[in-house]
Write a structure and sequence with these properties.
Order of helices and strands: HEEHHHEEHEEH
Largest sheet: 2 strands, antiparallel
Helix content: 40-55%
Oligomer: single chain
Radius of gyration: 19 Å
Number of strands: 6
Number of helices: 6
Distance between the termini: 48 Å
Shape: globular
Structural class: mainly alpha
Strand content: 5-15%
């Protein structure tokens, strides 16, 4: 399975492993091996890691707390107390850390528990830093992805042009064509 990484932060990319939260709600983390594959594709580890069904359950629980907490911040609301406790607990645990080898190469490896702790800590770092002011929701009506708007003018509207931005522009173009066809005499 191929994952997209358009948000600018690992925690927000991880929250995006559920597509269409407001409609069909498509879960992408369907097995422990998929969690491991996500970590590799995200560039957090170099090779797959062992992950159990319990690791997957914990990762999904943290993912949902990440999403709810980020959305609460966007909405100017308080996060859920249970989410605060879970995220603080997970972020305080050992995280993924790169290792320098005697050859000078860097190895990135770790456990599923360290991955989960790293993602929780990434959200806390995001909330504490200046980038939180630039977190936005994708403007596509069917998309629920969150992203950091790092554009110079801070006017990014979509999680990505290749997906949602292009869809919206094509839909608008077709709507203009239909409207024009209805106005034109035949």
């Amino acid at each position: 399975m191929k994952f997209g990484f358009v948000s600018g932060r690992s925690c927000l990319d991880f929250a995006g492993t559920v597509k269409h939260r407001n409609s069909t709600c498509a879960e992408r983390l369907t097995a422990p091996a998929v969690l491991s594959e996500w970590a590799v594709q995200a560039g957090l580890v170099d090779a797959g890691m062992e992950a159990s069904a319990e690791d997957l359950r914990s990762a999904i629980e943290v993912r949902e707390a990440i999403y709810r907490t980020a959305v609460a911040r966007l909405d100017g609301a308080q996060p859920r107390p249970a989410d605060v406790g879970l995220l603080n607990d997970q972020a305080s645990r050992p995280r993924l850390t790169p290792h320098l080898l005697p050859t000078g190469a860097i190895v990135r490896e770790g456990t599923a528990a360290q991955l989960i702790a790293t993602l929780a800590a990434d959200l806390l770092d995001l909330l504490a830093g200046p980038d939180i002011a630039n977190v936005k929701r994708c403007a596509h009506p069917d998309c629920t992805l969150l992203y950091v708007d790092s554009s110079r003018a801070k006017n990014r509207h979509w999680c990505g042009m290749a997906a949602c931005g292009n869809k919206v522009k094509v839909q608008a173009f077709r709507a203009r064509q239909r409207a024009s066809a209805h106005r034109s005499p035949s």
